[in-house]
């Protein structure tokens, strides 16, 4: 029978203390005894020596005395040695027994401790039954956090420092936030230091350091959801639940409302999720039901909860249509995809999967594979458009252990093609990785998937397991000498982790802070080894190129941008979804031929392309072909290929403000220009949207945008001003209107008011939907809005069957008058 570790340590510590006390006691006693007898012994020796000198017969007595004293002294010295060694050993045992195994770790740094209130937490097996009071303070008696599950978590996930992010995900899944006691214990059980833990837990947006309410509602704040009114939904939801501004949980701990970057279902915007279940196309009118649900008012007698009335509880991919365009065009990435279903490994094998890999391991040398990729003209689909073969060649020329990383972070709000690729055809990405591994001589790979895509994470993991069991991963792949294995790593809600150097830091369990280049990851990446980082779509193109020939790929697209590209359409387009089209397709073709144009009665105004690094191109430029270089000439970039369509109800100043808010929140804070410059730009745009901007603000925006672009280290800061600069260039009139206190699109809340026109038939619907009772129901009579009460949530306007509610935004006379002097 073995004692538990903590008991063993206690017993050892006790034994060590006893031994130490005994040894020190004996040493002291010996020392005292020696000190007492020393004079007598010395005196006896001198007397014996004197006697021996006078009388030779006394010599044997002297010898006996010397012998006795010598042996006594030797005995004493040996005894001292033994006691000394025993005391040192006992002291060492005491240190070991009382020390934490992870070393001399201090308690959690005060900063983290402060941001994590010591609140009581029950092991929440049934979150729906355990309300949490977020206002609990340190003074309350906090019940113990059950730390038992942590041991299982550490056994399952691993105790190495680079496992920190998966460890924190597992801890959060267990407790629904990161309780300080659990984090303390995590440091104790693993190689993670408190400093590393504090840095990582506070960096990633998906980690909660405060207790979570009984119901968790997540509202998407991505571009497509923003232009569809997510900000109003968020505001009204928090107001309806009684959540104070700046807080995310209501005072009773009933509901927590969080925001998410983008959930990857942008064609269903605005999207909200509750306990991971998606609710699509949410409007302010749907909120009473969601709020009732959160307040448990919709609890059934049976004890269960009624699901939301709104669609869709089905997996997200069934809501992502693959849009049909002109027929006869080959599909490179989406070939064989079935609507609403993902292809299994068997489907993939049946459709010719792994034939390219078989050719690469049996008939092509690594150099020949790279030549094929070069001839195809493939450029990276992750945003920069860097020639893929050039990157592969650099890594192949390096020596030692190498890595292949598939970048599936897809942080661009409004883009969802990478999610669909990972969910629908994960084996294609993995075959691309295997071919890359063969070409560059790598044995290990990582697929980095954002945490907001749980289905993609699951599909990639399942496929990796299946491929391992079928011999496509591991040693001797397809009977060759190729050895390669893959791990799927989940992000934690930091947009910047899509940037390759930040991603590498994240995989190693650290804060996702980009570093300056060179050295490029191709020379020094994961663990300082040469690392090939490619976007998942770039990798998904590779098997097709090797199966159909480089020239077939090169025959598609434009002179400088070859092949096809998967685009995602969202925003004010009639049919949102994915489109695979040859490079060079025009924006107009995508929106009109694939997406069916904008809604009847609306005017297509602009398209936002390339996410926060991209730009807003006006409808007049929608005939330019989409390729890397043509877009760059217009100040935009293709990014990952997400297109958010905007119509005449979208305000371009607000869109620019939205993107700056996004980049400001996502800045890692490393560079002053990015951290402070984007904040300052955001302040200026907020002033404009509030009708408080001046002409001097406009010139400040322009000059600051240039400084931020030049003074930032990584692509996030360098491209952050793009949405502002492109809207400035193409929609200057809207900025001018805001200077007058007008929002021509009727979007900026501070500049608009709602009115009921004579078309009102008095149906009372608007009054029923108004969340603040700003409209009195007066049946069969024209209704009136109390503008002092109105929060401009837009619910009445979208509900009115007669379109009798309009917004107006007249120029403020005061501002018109003050403008000339304002600068
Ligand atoms: C702020 C920022 C975010 C990025 N996000 C992504 C991303 O989500 N997915 C991606 O593949 N590349 C992203 N990139 C580009 C990567 O750094 C890298 O260039 C790319 O993954 C290389 O793959 P490729 O050559 O196949 O395009 C981002 C770059 C920056 C500066
Ligand atoms: S530019 Fe911004 S995101 Fe990039 S390293 Fe600097 S602060 Fe971080
Ligand atoms: S919903 Fe429209 S028609 Fe009905 S009362 Fe309101 S304004 Fe009038
Ligand atoms: S009156 Fe104002 S607050 Fe009420 S529904 Fe209309 S916009 Fe919203
Ligand atoms: S799901 Fe909301 S923008 Fe993508």
From TrEMBL:
UniProt keyword terms in alphabetical order: 4Fe-4S, Iron, Iron-sulfur, Membrane, Metal-binding, Oxidoreductase, Transmembrane, Transmembrane helix
Superkingdom of the source species: Bacteria
Protein name: NADP-reducing hydrogenase subunit HndC
Transmembrane segments annotated in the record for this chain: 12-29, 82-98
EC top class, as a word: oxidoreductase
Family: Belongs to the complex I 51 kDa subunit family.
The UniProt record lists the keyword Thylakoid: no
Lineage: Bacteria, Pseudomonadati, Planctomycetota, Planctomycetia, Pirellulales
Species for this entry: Posidoniimonas polymericola
One of the record's GO molecular function terms: hydrogen dehydrogenase (NADP+) activity
EC number, UniProt record: 1.12.1.3
One Pfam family recorded for the sequence: NADH_4Fe-4S
